[in-house]
Structures are given as C-alpha cells and as structure tokens.
C-alpha cells in the first residue's frame, strides 16, 4: 500500500515526518508532493517518492493526506481536471483533508468524489506546529465512518487524538468553533487585562493572580458542562445577580479608566437582559441561554454521556468538582 502526502509546509512537514516513520516500519510506500520540490528533500533522502503533480501522486496511492493553506488550494488540488487528485485516484481511494477548510467546500468536494466512487473526508487538526512535531494533535474527522475506521491507523501515526465526529463537514465546523472561540477569548482577555494594567496592577502580578482563579485552573471548554451543556441552571453554582454585580463593576471601571471594552459590554448587555427576564436567582451561565434562543438550536446533553467523555479524557488536574 502507498500513502501520499500533499503540502509540506510547517504543519505538513511535521505530520508527514511522523507518518513516514510509521510507514517505514510497516513497509508501506510514501509519495510526496509540494509546490516547492525543495520542501520534499528530507523525505526523498529517506526513500520517499516524488510526484510532479497531485494527479501523479494519486495514481500511485490508495490514501492521500492534504495539508494546504485554505479552501481554494484544496479545491484546485482535489478537482482540477488535468492535474488534480480526482483525475488519478483509483476507485475506493480516500483523501483526508487536514487543512482548515470551509464546511461548504468540503461538502462540495465530497459530493463530487462520491459520484466517482471515491472518498473525501474533512480532518482538520489542532495543536499547532509543536503539536505536529511531537504528535500531540487533535484531528476531528467528518465523512464516512467506515473509511475513518479503516484508515485510522494512519491518523494515529501523527496524532494522539484522532476521532470521528459526524458526517462530512463536521470536522471543519468543529475546527471553526474551536478557533473562533479561541480568538474571541483572546480579544476579551486583552480587554480585561489592559483594564487591569491601566487600573494600576503590574502585568506579571496580574497574570500570576488571575491564573490561579477559577477560570485559570480549568480547561476552558470543560466548563461548558457546567449548566450550559446539560441545560440546567438551577440550583446555581454562582447566581446571575452576583455575576451581574461583578460585571457592572468591571465595565464601570473600564469607563472610568477610558479603556475600550466592546466584548465586555456585549456580555454585560446579555446579562442585563437575563436579569430583566427574572433569571437573577439562576446560575450566572443562564445568560448563555439567550444565544441558544437567538440561534434557534436545542442544547441538552445527558450528564451520563458527559461523564463518559471525562472517563476517556479526564478533566484538568486540580478541578475537584470533576476529578473522581
């Protein structure tokens, strides 16, 4: 069996390097391609084959991995009638797109491939260059679960958290949720941190202090299980009326100091609306219900299912509420 890898940039090169170690041990062939042949020199020196085009690579391989900049590059590599993977991949072959892509694009490509008897799965990664180098990567896969199960051994060669999460596009949606939340959080942190510094606290002392608080000790996304994911806001862990008081004081201080705090004031506005709805005695996270309502979705997960996840992947150390 031959495995192909297209895109040997910072992330791709590290993932391909870890994959190649497994392929060498298991006697599978390795074929590589990049827009710069120089990026493949280290792999060619270790016995990998070079392909002049995605099509040529696909003609030699049963499974292909992509690590490309974005949607337009993935579309071109996958569907170009002359040089693309589609023109060369044998029936039953599979493509895993490791890029951060648009759900609409991966669904479009998957539909084209399905008509030809081919498999296309979105499999974006998270972990950054260091995670790609060390193999400490998450991969969120959307597409045909049977194909995922059959080929997971190759994903495991360069990631420690490869998991199937749904139909085609599900992986890309999860990646955008993860990254979008991260960038929104960093913006909020910048707002509040600059307020703290302008309020007279030395930056290192402020950082040392807040990282030992409730928010600093837990994994960010683990905290979604508190009230929000199970849709249960009573009895409160911390009442909304108390949180609203805290946010009132924080936003007032920002105004006093002349610190722009757009996100903090948006949060304050939602908390104000929640208070006006009579939710002051509910948990502080009850304000999150407003966004659920605006989005027109239902979120309510059984606590037993959440506990199953924690048993597979334990929460942060030092979180007594969830450590058992």
Please write out the topology.
Blueprint: E1 2-6, H1 10-25, E2 29-33, H2 41-45, E3 49-50, H3 54-60, E4 63-66, H4 71-79, E5 94-97, H5 103-115, E6 119-122, E7 125-126, H6 128-134, E8 138-142, H7 145-155, E9 161-166, H8 170-198, H9 203-210, H10 214-217, H11 240-257, H12 262-276, H13 289-295, H14 303-312
Parallel strand pairs: 1-2, 1-4, 2-3, 4-5, 5-6, 8-9
Antiparallel strand pairs: 7-8
Helix pairs in contact: 1-6, 4-5, 11-12
Task: Summarize the entry for a quick read.
The protein has 324 residues and is of the alpha/beta class. 49% of the residues lie in helices and 11% in strands. Helix 1 runs parallel beside helix 6 (128-134), helix 4 runs parallel beside helix 5 and helix 11 (240-257) runs antiparallel to helix 12.
Describe the structure.
The chain is of the alpha/beta class. 49% of the residues lie in helices and 11% in strands. The strands form two sheets. The protein has a six-stranded parallel β-sheet with strand order 3-2-1-4-5-6, with helices on both faces. Strands 7-8-9 form a three-stranded mixed β-sheet. Helix 1 links the parallel strand 1 and strand 2. The longest helix is centred in the middle third of the chain and has 29 residues. The mean pLDDT is 94.
The residue ranges in which pLDDT falls below 50 over 5 or more consecutive positions are none
Q: Please estimate the helix content.
A: 40-55%
Mean pLDDT: 94
Helical stretch count?
Answer: 14
The CA-CA distance between the termini, in Å, is: 44 Å
H and E order: EHEHEHEHEHEEHEHEHHHHHHH
């Amino acid at each position: 069996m031959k495995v192909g890898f297209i895109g040997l940039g910072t992330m791709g090169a590290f993932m391909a390097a870890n994959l190649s170690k497994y392929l060498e041990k298991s006697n599978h062939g390795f074929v590589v391609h990049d827009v710069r042949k120089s990026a493949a020199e280290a792999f060619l020196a270790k016995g990998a084959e070079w392909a002049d085009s995605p099509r040529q690579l696909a003609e030699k391989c049963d499974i292909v991995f992509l690590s490309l900049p974005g949607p337009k590059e993935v579309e071109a590599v996958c569907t170009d009638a002359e040089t693309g993977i589609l023109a060369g991949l044998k029936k039953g072959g599979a493509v895993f797109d490791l890029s951060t892509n648009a759900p609409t694009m991966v669904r479009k490509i998957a539909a084209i491939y399905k008509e030809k008897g081919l498999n296309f799965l979105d499999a974006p990664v998270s972990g950054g260059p260091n995670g790609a180098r060390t193999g400490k990567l998450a991969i969120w896969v959307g597409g045909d679960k049977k194909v995922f199960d059959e080929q997971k051994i190759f994903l495991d060669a360069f990631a420690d958290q490869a998991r199937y999460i749904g139909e085609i596009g599900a992986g890309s949606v999860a990646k955008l949720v993860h990254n979008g939340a991260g960038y929104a959080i960093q913006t909020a942190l910048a707002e509040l941190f600059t307020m703290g510094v302008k309020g007279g606290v030395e930056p290192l002392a402020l950082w040392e202090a807040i990282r030992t608080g409730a928010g600093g000790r837990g994994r960010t996304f683990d905290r979604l299980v508190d009230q929000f994911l199970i849709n249960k806001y009573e009895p409160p862990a911390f009442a909304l009326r108390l949180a609203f008081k805290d946010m009132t004081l924080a936003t007032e201080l920002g105004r006093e100091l002349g610190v722009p705090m757009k996100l903090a004031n948006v949060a304050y506005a939602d908390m104000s609306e929640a208070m006006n709805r009579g939710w002051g005695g509910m948990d502080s996270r009850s304000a999150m219900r407003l966004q659920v309502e605006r989005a027109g979705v239902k979120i309510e997960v059984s606590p037993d299912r959440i506990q199953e996840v924690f048993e597979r992947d334990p929460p942060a150390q030092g979180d007594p509420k969830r450590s058992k």
